[in-house]
Write a structure and sequence with these properties.
This protein has 434 residues and is of the alpha+beta class. It has a domain of 294 residues: Outer membrane efflux proteins (OEP) (Up-down Bundle). A hairpin with a 2-residue loop joins strand 3 and strand 4. Helix 3 packs antiparallel against helix 5, helix 5 packs antiparallel against helix 8 and helix 8 packs antiparallel against helix 9. The protein starts with a helix and ends with a helix.
Length: 434
């Protein structure tokens, strides 16, 4: 009976090995969500579509882009013309009480004036508004790539939690099977009471881990729903598989750094700010030149218009210290914008190099876990099980071998997810998918 129980355990362990290894190999290209999906979450694409359509922060940035576009026309427009009506001699040299109608006063002057800025000032203001639109578009893109990166990260973390739940659940089932075998051996005097106690401790630890994983699962659901603009407890489908990682040729730092300089949203925003600062500096130097006001007026006396006048007015920029101060301010603001642009590029390139290195390390770790540590852990388990069945090994060795299998598979899963997190960061820096 004991020998039959031992054979049953060995067969179960072999089946469990196939099940867990197959689960660890389920990493593939995430296809689009099928039309029959009741809830988003099974694939990354379904989550990204939902986030783009529903995320309120992204929606706010898109409204800001539209607002910036609407500021273009006013930026380069002339000021509204001004109309003035002046009642003169309202008492007709003291012969009447003050009157408020043109026909009752001595004379009425009507004037129409228009402000005209110095040549080039309107164009510079419009150019600044153009750069503000580009900056708003860059901020909108930046919001999206950061949202997409967070969505990818939470999706990968949910995959990790789900994988760990499955693994711990399978190991717990194995331990329950082993406990039944232990009960048989203990009844036959072939096992010690302390072995039963140890396996109970192992049960408790696994159940506690499942409780912790269930909490992480609920937290990830709330985080993901927040990114999707949904209620925290809105249902989500379980993730099916991770995305395929790019080929090594696609992860060349020189090629990616060139793409980053042209596509990184933060760099795009800072370049737009530099150009806006350049136009603002040019506008500050244009302040040395005067603006004009032109106008025409007509004088009405006794119902007839008999006097017409033309008017030209200009401001006199004679406060040299004020003008020089404004020019120095514009130069300083331009230098600050250029420094921020350079800092953003340096930061992005450093993060790209860091994430590429970490992605490569995660891939190597996953390879080692899959093809080296996990087979070794399986062999150790088989050896410990055979020794224990033959009375040549201790139960503690069996538990330790089982624990090593679980840790190896968890490390494999963690390395796969870590590679996904690094890929998400790389795509965030590039501002586009690899």
């Amino acid at each position: 009976m004991i020998r039959r129980a031992g054979s049953k355990v060995r067969l179960m362990v072999w089946a469990l090995s196939l099940t867990v290894c197959a689960a660890g190999a389920q990493t593939g290209t995430a296809g689009p969500s099928s039309s029959g999906d009741a809830h988003p979450g099974a694939t990354l694409d379904s989550l990204l579509l939902e986030a783009r359509a529903r995320n309120p922060e992204l929606g706010a940035m898109q409204h800001e882009v539209r607002a910036a576009n609407e500021r273009l026309e006013p930026a380069g427009a002339l000021a509204d013309p001004r109309f003035k009506m002046e009642l003169q001699d309202v008492t007709k040299s003291g012969t009447q009480t003050p009157a408020l109608f043109p026909s009752d006063v001595g004379a009425t002057e009507y004037s129409l004036t228009q402000e005209l800025p110095w040549s080039g000032k309107r164009a510079l203001k419009r150019d600044i508004a153009d750069q503000d639109v580009l900056a708003a578009q860059g901020r909108s893109r930046l919001t999206w790539v950061e949202l997409a990166a967070r969505t990818k990260a939470v999706f990968a973390q949910r995959y990790l939690v789900q994988g760990n739940q499955k693994l711990v659940g399978e190991m717990l089932e194995l331990m329950l099977q082993l406990e039944r075998v232990m009960q048989v051996r203990y009844a036959g005097g072939l096992a010690a009471q302390q072995d039963i106690t140890r396996i109970h401790v192992e049960h408790t630890a696994m159940r506690a881990e499942l409780v912790s994983l269930a909490s992480e699962w609920r937290q990830s659901q709330a985080s993901l729903n927040r990114l999707l603009g949904r209620a925290p407890d809105a249902p989500l489908a379980a993730p099916e598989r991770l995305r395929a990682l790019p080929e090594p040729a696609q992860l060349n730092f020189a090629a990616l750094s060139e793409r980053l300089r042209h596509a990184n949203p933060q760099i795009f925003v800072e370049v737009a700010r530099v150009r806006a600062a350049e136009k603002a500096r040019d506008l500050a130097y244009k302040a040395r030149y005067p603006d004009f006001v032109v106008g025409i007026s007509a004088m009405q006396r006794q119902g007839d218009f008999k006097e017409w006048s033309l008017m030209l007015e200009l401001n006199l920029p004679v406060r040299d210290s004020v003008l020089r101060s404004q020019e120095r301010e514009s130069e300083a603001m331009l230098a600050a914008a250029q420094a921020r642009s350079e800092a953003a590029a340096n930061q992005a390139l450093a993060e790209l190099a860091e994430n590429l290195s970490a992605l490569e390390a995660a891939q190597q770790t996953a390879h080692l876990m899959t093809y080296s540590l996990m087979p070794q852990a399986e062999l150790t388990w088989q050896s410990a099980l055979a020794s224990y069945e033959n009375g040549k090994g201790e139960f503690a060795m069996l538990l330790d071998a089982q624990r090593q299998i679980r840790l190896a598979r968890q490390s494999q899963l963690k390395a796969q997810v870590q590679a996904q997190l690094r890929l998400a960061d790389i795509e965030r820096l590039l501002g586009e998918e690899l």
